[in-house]
Structures are given as structure tokens and as C-alpha cells.
Amino acid sequence: MKTKMKSKRFSEWRSKTLGEKIFTVINVILLSAIGFICLYPIIYILAVSLSGAKYVNMGDVWLLPKGFNLSSYSQIIKRDGIWTAYFNSFFYMIVGTAVSMVLTILGAYPLSKNRLVGNRALNLIVVFTMWFAAGMVPMYLNFKDMNLLDSRLGIIIGFAVNTYNFILLRTYFKSIPDALEEAAKIDGANDFYILLKIYLPLAIPSLATIGLFYAIQHWNSYLWPMILLRSDSKIPLQVVLKKMVVDMSSRLDSMEFGRDTIGYSEDGFIYSTMIMAILPMVIIYPFVQKFFVKGVMIGSVKG
After folding, report:
1. What would the pLDDT profile of 7-29 be if each residue is shown by its tens digit?
2. Angle of the 237-246 helix axis to the 266-301 helix axis, nearest 10
3. Are the C-beta atoms of 236 and 85 separated by less than 8 Å?
4. What pLDDT digit, counting tens, does each position of 69-89 carry?
5. In this structure, what are the phi and psi dihedrals at residue 232, rounded to the nearest 5 degrees?
6. C-alpha 142: how far from its chain's center?
7. Closest Cα to residue 297, out of 107, 168, 161, 109?
8. Which residues, 6+ apart, have CB-to-CB distance to 70 below 8 Å?
9. For 168-181, what is each residue's pLDDT tens digit?
10. Distance CA 156, CA 91 (A)
11. pLDDT (tens digit, 9 = 90+) per residue, 124-154?
12. Is the pLDDT of residue 95 over 90?
């Protein structure tokens, strides 16, 4: 099978004109260079996190680890503050994504129906929020007036619905033939049953795409958690990581970081935490990748 595939590719290559071959070669080289540029920061921080303190502090690490050392990761495991922040990030991502999906589905379904009274006006109001935002100060005052400062609920509810994701799902629902809904209503089905049994199974690619968008949004969020949350027991990993990057002399607990005396460097510790922070997204993405392009394209071309 592999031999046949290779011979087929070789024959396809031979059948191309000189211009097509030159374009293909340039395209491969250019895309490979762009891919390397995009991946190099991740490769670099991974190499630093696995290198010895001496090589990191001397700036000798560029591409591959030097003086292979797992001390930075062992220090992460030992620190309670890191694991609390890690748990908070998972909590905001899992619970926040679930709440976001429920609210987006319950809003997108009725607004995809032309029979809804005031459909056009309501859709315009939703789209308007994507063009114009109130600003940080009014939003902060709203959170304060609703007693949502230093509250997990404020982080989850306050940023539950993304307008772009909402429009994407609403457009997908619009693309589903009305005949399916009419047939279900003839059999006595109500709107909730139609949504649950017909629309959601057909919208799995779009739901997977939107779910990934929401998961990344909640996992990477740090600005508003940094502004709204005051308790160390509630801040996510991204806020802790930001504090570490901005001020390397800050403490995660009562003990100062050392550089060469404890076998790992501050940079190595910070980069190890970065690797731990991006690892969940790296694990999740391959499982939803097959839905990603299909979900975006189907939900965007019709409407």
C-alpha cells in the first residue's frame, strides 16, 4: 500500500510543469519556515524547562536542553499555590465552558427562527455588542454593583457568551432544513425536543468547534480574573504565571527563589509552569481537530 502511494505521488510530481514544481518547492519551504517560527517559542521554553540551572542562567540554551534536569517540574509539584491555581484554571475552563455552551445554545436556537417575534431587532442587538463594548470601567462598576467582585460566579457568568460563537451557532442552526422541524412537529414534538433530538446531533461539528473556542477562552483568560479576583485561593494559573513573569523576585510562598543554589533557575521554573499551562490545550486539540474546519466552514458560509 505504501509503495503504491509513493509511486502515485511520484507520478503526480512528474506530471507537473516546471512552474508548478517551483511553486510547490517554494511553498513547502515558506510554510516550513513559518511553522518553525510559530513553534520555536514552545520549543525554546520546553528546552529551558528541561535544562540545568547553570546553562539557563548563562543563556546557553537555544533549541535543545542542556544538562537535562527535571528539578523545575519537581518544584512545581511540591508547591501548593501552583496546584491551587491549576485547579482554579480547570474549574473555570470546565464549568465556564459548560455554562457558555448551554447559554449559547439556548440563545442561538430561538434567534435562528424567523417566526420569533422581534427576531431581526434581537439579532441586531446581539451583533451590536460585538461592534461596540462598554469599556473596562463600566464593566468593573457593573461587577461591583452586582457584588461579583472576588467571586468565581462573576468570572463564569460575566463572560459566558461570546458574540462570535453565538453568531456561528445561530448560522449553523439556520442551515438545517425546516422540513425536519415541520416533520417533528407533525409527530407532536415541541421546540425543546426538536432542539435536543434533531438540532444538537446535527450540529456536533459546530458545537465541538465552539466548545474548543470557549475552552481556550476560559483557560487563557487572565486580565479580568486579575482585576476582579483578590483571594489567592481563587486566582487561576494564568494570573500566577503573569506575576511570575513580570516580577521574577516575587514569592509563591514564604521562601525566596534561588538561582544556582537549589539546582534550578527562576527562568526554568517559570517556563516549566508555562509548559504545564499549555499542556491541557495541546492534549484536547487533537480530539476536536477533525470537527474544527468543518464546523467553522458550515457555520460561516450560510446565513
Report:
1. 666 667 677 777 887 888 898 89
2. 130
3. yes
4. 888 888 777 777 788 888 999
5. -65, -25
6. 26
7. 168
8. 50
9. 899 889 888 888 88
10. 10
11. 888 888 888 778 888 899 999 999 899 999 9
12. yes
Q: Which amino acid is at 96?
A: G
- Identify the CA nearest to 104 among candidates 173, 199, 170, 192: 170
Cβ atoms of 85 and 225 within 8 Å: the answer is no
pLDDT at 108: 92
Instruction: List C-alpha distances in Å: 154 to 55, 228, 266, 274, 297.
Output: 43, 8, 33, 25, 33
Exposure string over 192-231, b if 16+ CB within 10 A, otherwise e: eebbeebbeebbebbbbbbbbbbbbbbbebbebbeebbee
Q: Looking at the chain, how many residues does it have?
A: 303
Q: What cell does 284 get? A: 484536547
Query: Which one, of 255, 226, 280, lies nearest residue 87 by Cα?
Result: 280
Q: Model pTM greater than 0.85?
A: no
What's the CA angle centered on 59, arms 58 and 65, to 5 degrees? 105
Q: For cell 441586531, what's the residue? A: 124
Amino acid at 33: A
Selected residue with higher pLDDT from 133 and 37: 37
pLDDT (0 to 100) of residue 241? 79
Backbone φ/ψ region at 59: left (φ over 0), alpha (ψ -120 to 50), beta: left
